[in-house]
Every structure is written in structure tokens, then in C-alpha cells.
Design brief:
This is Transcriptional regulator with XRE-family HTH domain. Keywords: DNA-binding. The protein is an alpha+beta fold. It folds into 2 domains: about 5-70, 434 Repressor (Amino-terminal Domain) (Orthogonal Bundle), CATH 1.10.260.40; about 85-180, Sandwich (Jelly Rolls), CATH 2.60.120. The protein is built from 5 helices and 9 strands. A 6-stranded antiparallel sheet has the order 1-2-3-9-4-7. A 3-stranded antiparallel sheet has the order 6-5-8, with no helix packed on it. Helix 2 (about 25-30) packs across helix 3 (about 35-40). The two termini are about 30 Å apart.
């Protein structure tokens, strides 16, 4: 399993232990079975960013602390220079670059996401809140609640992130898009 996934899993377990929350309660707050939650916490299964956003919001911690292990400190503004966002490669197919990792008490989480072409089964995810995606380059196949939508460069979508959704690069070319999770 990817080292960054193991590190996130360890921080997730540390959060649960620090808050003295049992596995049953944590799984219930995530709307997961205990077995599925334990697969995330043990690092056996990649933890979706949306799930981390849900956990961070529910327990009043910064999502960046779970993702990167650092607490944001800025509260007036935070500048991210081109290509200098805190990066996380969650798998060979997905790379996230946080655009606001150092800003404390964010109302949302902006990322530049790069999705590599893959023949893997269509990924699926669901999380609390809403999501905005704007395609910067490439072509994105987005599936929301079973409906497939193609987004090209310059296209944007805003949707209910509680609906099952997933993304794939099209035409055997990587796609980059701005994702804003609220």
C-alpha cells in the first residue's frame, strides 16, 4: 500500500484515539460499517478525500492535518504559488495538490486534481457537502449517481457530493481540474 495512505490512516487512528472515540462511533459518524472504517484506518484501503473532509468537519479538525500531518496557521491569507501546493499522490491514478493547506478554519478545500488514464473500474465516492469541479486541461468523465457527464477544458460543474460520484480521464490523456469541496 502507498506510504502516504498508511500515514493518513495512522493520523486517522490517532485522531480517534485522541478523542477517545470507539470504532463503532467513528464508523457510524462516517456512515460506514465498522469493517469498512477499519479498512481505512488500517491503511488497507485508500481513504477518499471526501471522507476525510466529512471526518474533519464532524470532529472540528483541519482536513490538511489528516492529509499532510501539519496544522494550518494562517488566518488572514495564504498564497500558493503555481505548482507549489502541498501535493499528495493517493494512488497512481489520482494526485491532489492542496491550494489552501496553510489557511486555518477554511470553509472549503480547493485542490488541483490530476487523474491519470486508467483501465481500472470506475471509482466511486460520496461525502457530505457540495463539490465544484472546473476542467483546466484534458477531458473528464464524471459519473454522478449513475449518470455520466463529459466535461472538456473550460467546463465546470457544481453538485451534491452526497451523491455517489467518480472521475476518470478520457482519451488516454491525463486530466487536470480544480476541485473545491465545501
Amino acid at each position: 500500500m502507498n506510504e502516504s495512505i498508511k500515514q493518513i490512516a495512522a493520523r486517522l487512528r490517532g485522531l480517534r484515539e485522541a478523542l477517545a472515540i470507539d470504532i463503532e462511533e467513528m464508523a457510524a459518524s462516517c456512515e460506514l460499517s465498522e469493517q469498512e472504517y477499519l479498512a481505512y484506518e488500517s491503511g488497507e484501503k485508500d481513504i477518499p478525500v471526501g471522507l476525510l473532509h466529512t471526518i474533519a468537519s464532524h470532529y472540528g479538525v483541519e482536513m490538511t492535518a489528516l492529509l499532510f500531518g501539519d496544522e494550518p496557521r494562517m488566518n488572514a491569507y495564504y498564497v500558493t504559488r503555481k505548482g507549489q501546493g502541498v501535493a499528495l499522490e493517493r494512488s497512481k491514478a489520482y494526485k491532489y495538490e492542496s491550494l489552501a493547506a496553510g489557511f486555518a478554519n477554511r470553509k472549503g478545500d480547493p485542490f488541483i486534481v490530476t487523474v491519470e488514464p486508467s483501465d481500472a473500474p470506475f471509482p466511486s465516492n460520496a461525502h457530505a457537502g457540495q463539490e465544484f469541479n472546473y476542467v483546466i486541461e484534458g477531458s473528464l468523465l464524471l459519473q454522478i449517481n449513475g449518470k455520466r457527464i463529459i466535461l472538456e477544458e473550460g467546463d465546470a460543474i457544481y453538485f451534491n457530493a452526497e451523491l455517489t460520484h467518480g472521475m476518470q480521464a478520457r482519451n488516454h490523456v491525463p486530466v487536470r481540474f480544480l476541485a473545491f469541496i465545501l
